[in-house]
TrEMBL record:
Pfam family, one: GldC-like
Recorded superkingdom: Bacteria
Entry-linked NCBIfam families: GldC (TIGR03515)
GN (gene name): gldC
InterPro entries (UniProt xref): Motility-assoc_prot_GldC (IPR019854)
Protein name from the UniProt record: Gliding motility protein GldC
Amino acid sequence: MTSDIKITVELDDNRVPEKLFWSAQDGGVVQEESKAMMLSFWDSKVQETMRIDLWTKDMPVDEMKKFFHQSLVAMADTFQRATDDEKMADTMKDFCDYFAEKMELKKEE
């Protein structure tokens, strides 16, 4: 059995992303538009992370700050589930709170 996740990137003449779409039919997602994405893969052979970070040219900076904050919070949660290291996960969450404070995100939420 396989499950596919598809990412479509529409580029302008300078190859800058104008639109991002993603589909995951097993999750009921079909051509959902997005303004930004971060995708990471672990290469066990070379012990390195391979990444794809894309955002559209019309991604607002205030939304990018929220996107980063929410991604950091999700990474802290995933880290805790994957490693069962509650102490470090809490430290990561403290940084997320600090990040939100410095980006002045808390008063918007």
